[in-house]
């Protein structure tokens, strides 16, 4: 009988009222085996999922963060683009630059989508089919003032590029070399003050002009050029504000010298050192900010660095001397590995590509792929993944995935795409940045005019300009308080306002936190597909979980066989089939009939029945045909001999709804009452009841149970503890579903049973209509429509298939508690984004008035000089970046209630243990690690293990990992 495709079979079988999934567990090896089914099943949900694309991009008509409706257009345009390129940009100074570049790019008729990451300064551009070259884009960006470099696919993460940091470092060094002599001339060489060179110009003033002029060209030229090009394109950003402040100080000083040439008694001071110090402090801030931004992608850099550069390829060659074939190993570039190549991986070496073990046994550390601290045993036939570390002995593998198709490459690509995305909250920074610089120029002008008029008109108290913290002696020596020079004070205040104003902190608040947060998530096996996902996950009020394969293990096992003896004996007598103890009696007959129908089934129920039948040494009957019946099961025809002739016996296996609806049983038969009672009792025990009928007469009821995952209990309790509603959805019957829910602590009113695959998405929409923000947790295969319909779709146990398109979050490990980690991480990251915004806004709200002199009436003498303003401006951006970097200290919640000892046996005879250093009471090292004493923090009792362990010991900051042979 031809077997239907996985996707068709899943839909049909789930329509019968059962949950369906392909294969068994969802660990790494099985994750690869599920790829084909996953891709087919997610195909239908791609269009729905596009509305929640992980990247926020600009559309033709918009220059700010788009609305959800625009998101769908953006995702469609990205899908339609024939190519996507990445450009590394230089010269970006603030969020205004980002908006200017995106608007400029989107004006190109060949550009469909464009987004620039404020933290990495990488532009991701989707090109139309008619756009054949990127040279014109690069040239246009150069003319705009932002030199661009094309990033190739093999370049990996752009954060390893230190060109920008090195550029700021060189500029800072030159700036310091100029500033030191200017500072010394201003404050140390007092004797030069009275030495006249020409007119009223002193030697000191001329020397400062001689030093500061080349500094303005060499160091200040970078800011002036960027400001000029921005002004040409009607954009005013941080460079423009800096140029006004720095240039104003320099130009005013030059004017003072020119006036002194004519009027020798002109006594206004020069401010060359102020201009120099402004340039130095601002450049220092940009250097520190750029260096700190490089650390925001440390996790991504470490992931990319996991990929080894070399590989040992095994091949056979024929010796020319005698024609004998020999096996040789050659050291090749890892990028040269092709599908099917045989590779040798030595101990302490990383896997160059994904592959299958063909020879050898070892222990492989897969922590960088799935966050699992316990190394995994590998034998022939097991999957290994590029970048994972071989620990104990050599392995020979066959390459199955190379290049961009490896699990590591997929993870790096997803994390990088997420880091290049924008969260909707970024719209706040974009909207402020668009008007920030022009507004600050107005504030600066108002500040200048106010103080110029107020001091000259004596509208202010002269005591405002004298510090309240001066001693009595200092106050008496000063005499009566005097007004400062009105023009000088007004000018210095205006410059301080221009310099202290900083939109950079606002622009960095979101992207730096998103970059660090997504990297931290990848480290813990949680892949988050964008900043918008983080923001939406913080709003989740309800979590809907699929039952089979998500809350339960997904491996149904036979628990009960209830045979209707009168009907079984009648059937046995009719066809001369033995029902003796040697063939399992009547129960064995029921199993053989059910297994005959389910033999070709890929559904967990069918596989469970067939496995149990074979495990009992029973041989299923041979079915002539079998077909899936939409509504709840399978029907088969079995040819049997009776009275010398062959009769075709119809066997139906499925739930009661199928048998009754399809008229496959005689509902009036006298044994139906007993069958229904048996089924109801089984379902109340959280078991799935399956009826077996022969020629419309029920001959038995089978019960299969799916074990609840150990961490499911803690997961449900943890989600409820943080105020989330937990719902369970399943295609199983209501009795079984409610029994499982009761064990997990889920309210019966929050159980959705007998839900068909397409109905899951309908229930999601219904819950959203009730005002809930819904997160759906599933395996990413048959749950694709529901994952796509949810506000946040979470795929659990993706294994190596990390690019589950219908999901917004992908949990690599098959551990349901990772849902709690994902939501907790999302909340933590978004709280940090809010904190960053509070700091950035508070900084500007406080510093701008302080620079303008608004604090003088309240704190006498408190006035921010331009140099101090430059330092404050630099610190604002650095503080935001450091705040985001603090997310690297994140510690995920645990499901073990504090248990710090973990032991797991594996088929190779190894024992892996993770022990907290604080609980390692004592150990000695001889041939191995002996007499280990481990504390159990859950019951505070002491467990002592005295045995010799052979293997490797790896230590981290707070724990030791032992990979040992007992």
Automatic annotation (TrEMBL):
<protein>
    <recommendedName>
        <fullName>HMA domain-containing protein</fullName>
    </recommendedName>
</protein>
<keyword id="KW-1278">Translocase</keyword>
<dbReference type="InterPro" id="IPR059000">
    <property type="entry name" value="ATPase_P-type_domA"/>
</dbReference>
<dbReference type="InterPro" id="IPR001757">
    <property type="entry name" value="P_typ_ATPase"/>
</dbReference>
<dbReference type="InterPro" id="IPR036412">
    <property type="entry name" value="HAD-like_sf"/>
</dbReference>
<dbReference type="Pfam" id="PF00122">
    <property type="entry name" value="E1-E2_ATPase"/>
</dbReference>
<feature type="domain" description="HMA">
    <location>
        <begin position="83"/>
        <end position="149"/>
    </location>
</feature>
<dbReference type="InterPro" id="IPR044492">
    <property type="entry name" value="P_typ_ATPase_HD_dom"/>
</dbReference>
<keyword id="KW-0479">Metal-binding</keyword>
<dbReference type="GO" id="GO:0055070">
    <property type="term" value="P:copper ion homeostasis"/>
</dbReference>
<feature type="transmembrane region" description="Helical">
    <location>
        <begin position="240"/>
        <end position="263"/>
    </location>
</feature>
<dbReference type="Pfam" id="PF00702">
    <property type="entry name" value="Hydrolase"/>
</dbReference>
<keyword id="KW-0472">Membrane</keyword>
<comment type="similarity">
    <text>Belongs to the cation transport ATPase (P-type) (TC 3.A.3) family. Type IB subfamily.</text>
</comment>
<feature type="compositionally biased region" description="Basic and acidic residues">
    <location>
        <begin position="929"/>
        <end position="941"/>
    </location>
</feature>
<keyword id="KW-0067">ATP-binding</keyword>
<dbReference type="GO" id="GO:0016887">
    <property type="term" value="F:ATP hydrolysis activity"/>
</dbReference>
<keyword id="KW-1133">Transmembrane helix</keyword>
<dbReference type="GO" id="GO:0005507">
    <property type="term" value="F:copper ion binding"/>
</dbReference>
<feature type="transmembrane region" description="Helical">
    <location>
        <begin position="486"/>
        <end position="509"/>
    </location>
</feature>
<dbReference type="InterPro" id="IPR018303">
    <property type="entry name" value="ATPase_P-typ_P_site"/>
</dbReference>
<keyword id="KW-0812">Transmembrane</keyword>
<dbReference type="InterPro" id="IPR023298">
    <property type="entry name" value="ATPase_P-typ_TM_dom_sf"/>
</dbReference>
<feature type="region of interest" description="Disordered">
    <location>
        <begin position="29"/>
        <end position="71"/>
    </location>
</feature>
<dbReference type="InterPro" id="IPR023299">
    <property type="entry name" value="ATPase_P-typ_cyto_dom_N"/>
</dbReference>
<dbReference type="GO" id="GO:0016020">
    <property type="term" value="C:membrane"/>
</dbReference>
<feature type="transmembrane region" description="Helical">
    <location>
        <begin position="868"/>
        <end position="890"/>
    </location>
</feature>
<keyword id="KW-0547">Nucleotide-binding</keyword>
<dbReference type="GO" id="GO:0012505">
    <property type="term" value="C:endomembrane system"/>
</dbReference>
<dbReference type="InterPro" id="IPR006121">
    <property type="entry name" value="HMA_dom"/>
</dbReference>
<dbReference type="InterPro" id="IPR023214">
    <property type="entry name" value="HAD_sf"/>
</dbReference>
<dbReference type="GO" id="GO:0005524">
    <property type="term" value="F:ATP binding"/>
</dbReference>
<feature type="compositionally biased region" description="Basic residues">
    <location>
        <begin position="47"/>
        <end position="60"/>
    </location>
</feature>
<dbReference type="GO" id="GO:0043682">
    <property type="term" value="F:P-type divalent copper transporter activity"/>
</dbReference>
<dbReference type="InterPro" id="IPR036163">
    <property type="entry name" value="HMA_dom_sf"/>
</dbReference>
<feature type="transmembrane region" description="Helical">
    <location>
        <begin position="837"/>
        <end position="856"/>
    </location>
</feature>
<dbReference type="Pfam" id="PF00403">
    <property type="entry name" value="HMA"/>
</dbReference>
<dbReference type="InterPro" id="IPR027256">
    <property type="entry name" value="P-typ_ATPase_IB"/>
</dbReference>
<feature type="transmembrane region" description="Helical">
    <location>
        <begin position="195"/>
        <end position="219"/>
    </location>
</feature>
<feature type="transmembrane region" description="Helical">
    <location>
        <begin position="432"/>
        <end position="453"/>
    </location>
</feature>
<feature type="region of interest" description="Disordered">
    <location>
        <begin position="929"/>
        <end position="952"/>
    </location>
</feature>
<dbReference type="InterPro" id="IPR008250">
    <property type="entry name" value="ATPase_P-typ_transduc_dom_A_sf"/>
</dbReference>
